[in-house]
Amino acid sequence: MRRFVADRARRAATAASTRSAATRSAAAPSPYAPPTAPTAPSRPPPAAAMASAMVRAMSTAAAPVSLDTINPKVLKCEYAVRGEIVTHAQNLQQELQKNPDSLPFEEILYCNIGNPQSLGQQPVTFFREVLSLCDHPALLDKSETHALYSSDAIERAWQILEKIPGRATGAYSHSQGIKGLRDEIAAGIAARDGFHASGDNIFLTDGASPAVHMMMQLLIRSENDGILCPIPQYPLYSASIALHGGSLVPYFLDEETGWGLEVDELKKQLEESQSKGITVRALVVINPGNPTGQVLAEENQKKIVEFCKNEGLVLLADEVYQENIYVEDKQFHSFKKVARSMGYTDDDLPLVSFQSVSKGYYGECGKRGGYMEVTGFSADVREQIYKVASVNLCSNVSGQILASLIMNPPKAGDESYESFMVERDGILSSLARRAKALEEAFNSLEGITCNKAEGAMYLFPRIHLPQKAIGAAQAAGTAPDAYYACRLLEATGIVVVPGSGFGQVPGTWHFRCTILPQEDKIPAIISKFKEFHEKFMDEFRD
Amino acid sequence: MRRFVADRARRAATAASTRSAATRSAAAPSPYAPPTAPTAPSRPPPAAAMASAMVRAMSTAAAPVSLDTINPKVLKCEYAVRGEIVTHAQNLQQELQKNPDSLPFEEILYCNIGNPQSLGQQPVTFFREVLSLCDHPALLDKSETHALYSSDAIERAWQILEKIPGRATGAYSHSQGIKGLRDEIAAGIAARDGFHASGDNIFLTDGASPAVHMMMQLLIRSENDGILCPIPQYPLYSASIALHGGSLVPYFLDEETGWGLEVDELKKQLEESQSKGITVRALVVINPGNPTGQVLAEENQKKIVEFCKNEGLVLLADEVYQENIYVEDKQFHSFKKVARSMGYTDDDLPLVSFQSVSKGYYGECGKRGGYMEVTGFSADVREQIYKVASVNLCSNVSGQILASLIMNPPKAGDESYESFMVERDGILSSLARRAKALEEAFNSLEGITCNKAEGAMYLFPRIHLPQKAIGAAQAAGTAPDAYYACRLLEATGIVVVPGSGFGQVPGTWHFRCTILPQEDKIPAIISKFKEFHEKFMDEFRD
Q: Where is the composition biased (Low complexity) (chains A, B) (predicted)?
């Protein structure tokens, strides 16, 4: 058995005076130290600390950069989805490669991150055909190309190249992205919503994350500016708010009602933060929910829109899972559609919708494509958003092309349509089955309750840990759910993210587990998980 | 004739109280107003301003987001390379499309930005073949593929896929980039420099710009932190420092000595800023220079390294033009090679080298690939850089692949080698000829002096403007070089960037012009330019 030691960065930030030149150049130690070690090995003993302080004082100049002298906002930022547990998993994976029999499992199962293709999901053929042709347009002039590519992929590649000035897929584009592709995306949005959309409002980005950063950068002036975020939340938001020096204003989703989002709770938290001198600038809503998987009802969304309108908040709508709906009684409605259906126009409500090529049925995470649809801002503020986009020149053109493809996939009658639909529906229906199988498995276990994943790619089960397990975690200096996740990893190779990385009601413990392992692996994962959990509960049962 | 009006954002920031709801929702007006207009039309007259203030006071809530309430760092940031002159050019281009005979030229010639493929440069075939195959790996199993792709491109695609876990080009990679590709890049660096390089020190990024932002984010805590930057500088640096709230500490390059970088000047500026309470954290060196085109001599680089070592500065080496050298008596030396040749190791000097797939002979701007090689930082600071990288998950995988290709191009004996070398040398020798032709043309004109472009992609001629022209610019409320650039654009369609966007010795005026128009267009550009310049001088000669 091993135990967590406290997070290195936090520790370093508060114990900076004992840092030595020797530890600075050493490799990062594992976050897991043997439980019987009398002192944490990565913290030098007092004598060594004193000696190193002397060395520092004697040198001609202090090290130019140390944890004491970097931007404290960077230190403060945390991103659990790729945090300590994942580093530990990567180290175990290296151990496995060197010595395959050294651990009680044969492989690491990365259920920590929504990264479908890393777990074997195959890319959608039509999309990849088009990308491949756009990367090497010389192919389009060759007759042999027809033996390798479908005719509609060739046709689409031509159409896309015609939209790119000089057909130059290797040129920087307009800072918002290629105009013709933005128009195509806008047409896709209009078809989805039944309301007008304009390519002028689309900002193509390298995935949704840079888009979120851009909006945070625009809105946050100081720690007195707050952003309302769901708890639990996808930690991109807390990380981005920390990096930009703002305040996260939490609102709690109600686990009892399937992670319900209540406007009363929004109001309560808004008023509470205002009484502390925080100016709340925006409300983040993730729909379908991450890590919580709920799909908002239209009536609920209307109340949220009304709330933003009344309180003068920017509505930041994370809608990257809009294609991932697994239950028949729920449907995705974009916030823009809801706002327009209420009669609100571009003049009434600043609203940003984030979309990504990384999710949906396509799961093209490595392509880093996405967009934000920006409505309801004045022309001069829009110019400022454009300026920030222009400092990074443009997003990658392959990602731009892919973003246009997901918003305009093959249509009935196209050569690829049938095979495309088989691929698409195969992935989505399999994801629905996996979500259900995992949810049922979790709910069958002692001390675990798990809401349905109505959408998105995750389950967020609650673990009711025995007091003795909480005590063991405390003794190891770590959060109980992090302790549980660490034990799970070390026993089974399954990587999940502790609920503390997303935020949760104090005193409750959760973890996020993706539904993404390939379907044939799910039974084995469930059985490994069950075996671990039963042993864990036996070990710690009060 | 038209004239500039003052920059909208600056104006708005200081005249915010007169902003009305009506102007907020209006489209952005052209930055060029007719010279005889009695009042600038985009600023409402006092009566309208009062009325709009009343409307604001009467509405239930102020507009959620206005120039008064966004992050002032965003307002402060400027990026001339895609600034006002480019917006004006884009508007003229639209005018041309609607009415081809409306302007005294037939096309806009974008010499404002280093974007070779937008001006007709063709991508390198081998690189595109490999990208195309990696985008659609199913092709690799088909015999027909050999009819369309070179055998070494197929072989290389296989090698790359083997380096990607699960061959999943659509998966998020490691946050620093795919390990096998980083190792390949490190091998390329080692072969270039003759000193060891490690893939663990490589951070793959979506071009060099996000890498620069990451380092600024790490180093800048407040406006009391300064970054030494060359003047003239590529405005990414001033923009990034502004966005992160730091202070740009200028050091002036010496135009008289071919944009020489003198350590005495660095020391002087460092001490001056220190006396103002600024803590200088880092020195930015752009080599080959942008916009100035000089290539640093090794002896000069040694002094710069020594300076950084003595003063405890991070050396931020922008080396994205390392392949673009056009003179026989100069050679590119990476700062890491220079530092290592002086005996400095990883423990002595924090040094970051930025590289990009956008420049060189490949010019793959739209692919958004690049890397930074990070050496000389402690392990705990490195972890913080890793954490910031991980918040954005990873850079785009096609860009990662391309970065590995430029650092490991075809070798003698490979099927593609000869045609690759023809493409590569063709581009580089043509760029050298274009640089020379433009330099000579500029130097042949009254009142223009122009240093040689030893490297990079730009000329930065000085224009000695007649007093009368300076007066006309002042009357138009704009900088004299911006006035000149605007007149040039409106007469010829040629887009250059005013020197004021890069910084220059006060009282001197310049513009940056790329050497990137295709070679057959250079004579016409020169003759248009000459004609404009002679008329301009005739108009304003004192």
A: 12-30
